[in-house]
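Our preliminary data section would be incomplete without showing what the modeling component actually yields. Below, a chain of 151 amino acids is followed by its predicted structure, encoded as tokens that our downstream tools consume directly.
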Amino acid sequence: MSALELKIPPVALVLLAGAAMWLLSSLTPSVTLPVPYRHVAAIAFAGMIVALLGLIAFRRARTTVNPTTPHAASSLVGTGVYRFSRNPMYLGFLLALTGWTVFLANGLSAILVPGFVMYMNRFQIGPEERALSGIFGEQFTSYTHRVRRWV
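Predicted structure:
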């Protein structure tokens, strides 16, 4: 296990990425792109809804929502939004960051979005999936064959 795995809570990572995007946008106004209707951050709003639906599904299943302790999962959630994405909360965060990128309309800030995905895949989702595989075995493996990681 790497020292970074499961160490930074995803919500904190989203906030850090969003702040870094704003900082890049502020420091490089010459890279600002003309994006019509950029103040309509519907993508970010959709992301918040998707993340909230994931949180609600976890609460209903009475399992941990703490992303740094996947070994504490008490049930495998495969209903609701989890029928379409194994990681709807992270998908929601991705959509929110994408909406923030559109709002900022800065080309450099956009590079942090794929960075967020790469980090999440390597240091959060990978370790979570290893833990869930250890807990739920074939049930989790079957779930991963039916439902994609992001969308």
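The first helix runs from residue 10 to 27. The mean pLDDT is 92. Preliminary results of this kind motivate Aim 1 of the renewal.
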